Amino acid sequence: METVIDMQGVSWKREDRFLLNEVNWTVLPRQHWALLGLNGSGKTTLLNMINGYLWPTKGRIQVLGRTLGDTDVRHLRQAIGWVSSSLQDKLYGSDTGERIVLSGKFATIGLYDKPSREEVSYAYSCMEALQCTKLWSREYRTCSQGEKQKLLIARALMANPQLLILDEPCNGLDLFSRESLLSAISALASRADTPTLIYVTHHTEEILPLFSHILLLRRGQVVQARERESIMNAEVLSDFFENCVAVENHAGRIYLRPYPQ
Ligand SMILES: Nc1ncnc2c1ncn2[C@@H]1O[C@H](COP(=O)(O)OP(=O)(O)OP(=O)(O)O)[C@@H](O)[C@H]1O
User: Fold this and answer.
1) Where is the signal peptide, in residue numbers (predicted)?
2) Over residues 65-89, mean pLDDT
């Protein structure tokens, strides 16, 4: 079985400091992973490696069966959707939801080619997957943060990726927009043709039960990379955060409280 991601002994050193240190991580088909780490733990650095934007100082990386260094990364990137909020401000505010999503097919900012009828219908189905078809004719600049995130994910689906990285998608969302986005992600994951999902976050309660595995990253090192059940408990999470935390489980989601010593 072809691995989705396979990192072995991956390190990245800058200015005498290891920003990633001996990272081993294997993602298999039909797994969905959450990547949990505090600010500065190395999550973005890791994603940059997976997408071939950074080169490891040491170690080997395979993504979708292709070894980085041995493959055309531009080709590889077409099979990876990387949704991060940094893209939000680059898109044209006057474009409609339809055009924003369709532009994902061509990986362009703005739409320059006339899409076929099939492409338009596929764009609609991507928006259905994200429960945001009501944004079809809406100007992008009039969308809320949560609506923009849904459009960006639908846009990434337009290229039919095998791997979809959701990079802190709930940042800046209020409680209800966050729940609406998480519910859309949950619906997306339940579809038969869903790509492998990697969900990057600082917050355990965003890690929906659909994420079968969790990688805990701290100061550039993998602390744990295992099934969610063996990670989402007070003992492992207190050890990981180096602070005592109490956990509350609501519908399979884990809410943390700092625990007075
Ligand atoms: N090009 C670089 N040169 C030197 N240090 C860097 C470089 N890029 C990142 N760093 C440092 O590496 C560490 C990890 O950064 P990274 O952005 O990967 O963390 P992160 O987990 O994504 O953080 P956040 O959750 O805040 O986005 C940080 O201390 C950062 O300052």
Assistant:
1) none
2) 88
Number of domains in the chain: 2
> Which ipTM score applies to this complex?
0.94
User: Is the CB of residue 195 below 6 angstroms from any atom belonging to ligand 1?
Assistant: no
- Choose one of 45, 82, 86, 198 to mutate for the ligand 1 pocket test, by most ligand atoms within 8 angstroms of C-beta: 45
Q: What is the pTM of this model?
A: 0.93
pLDDT value at residue 115: 77
Last residue of a domain, one of 119, 143, 160: 160
Inform me whether the pLDDT recorded for 118 exceeds 80.
yes
pLDDT-derived band at 215, boundaries 50, 70, 90: very high
Domain final position from 160, 180, 215? 160
Length of the chain: 261
Beta bridge partners of 199: 34, 166
Q: Are residues 16 and 45 in the same domain?
A: yes
Query: Does residue 44 line the site of ligand 1, with CB under 6 A?
Result: yes
Range of the domain at 98: 86-160
- Whether ligand 1 lies within 6 angstroms of the CB of 43 is answered as yes
Residue 9 CB-half CA count within 13 A: 4
Q: Mean pLDDT throughout 42-55? A: 93
Query: Helix crossing, 117-129 with 145-157: angle to 10°?
Result: 130
Decide: 56 in ligand 1 pocket, CB within 6 A: no
Nearest atom, ligand 1, residue 15 CA: 4
Count other Cβ atoms within 10 Å, centred on residue 253.
Answer: 16
